[in-house]
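Input structure tokens:
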């Protein structure tokens, strides 16, 4: 869960328009971008998008070392491969 800031809410307006996102998805995306900007660029990251709402932003995530993943199994596999964490 990522917190949303007032700046995220303002930024979400542009994301909604630029990427044709629904308002709630644009707010989530703004919070994700804010979080990505706070993390080291070389750190591997992922965004779980089970419902395929964020396909349009995938090219924006790649330069931030963030992979768009479409399933819980895929996200778990990413965690296992990236950090060697096993349940």
């Amino acid at each position: 869960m990522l917190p949303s800031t007032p700046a995220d809410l303002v930024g979400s307006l542009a994301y909604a328009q630029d990427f044709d996102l629904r308002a709630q998805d644009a707010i989530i995306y703004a919070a994700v971008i804010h979080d990505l900007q706070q993390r080291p660029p070389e750190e591997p990251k992922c965004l779980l998008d089970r419902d395929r709402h964020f396909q349009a932003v995938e090219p924006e995530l790649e330069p931030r070392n963030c992979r768009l993943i479409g399933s819980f199994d895929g996200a778990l596999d990413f965690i296992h491969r990236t950090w060697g964490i096993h349940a």
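Residues 23-38 form the longest helix (16 residues). The longest strand covers residues 45-48.
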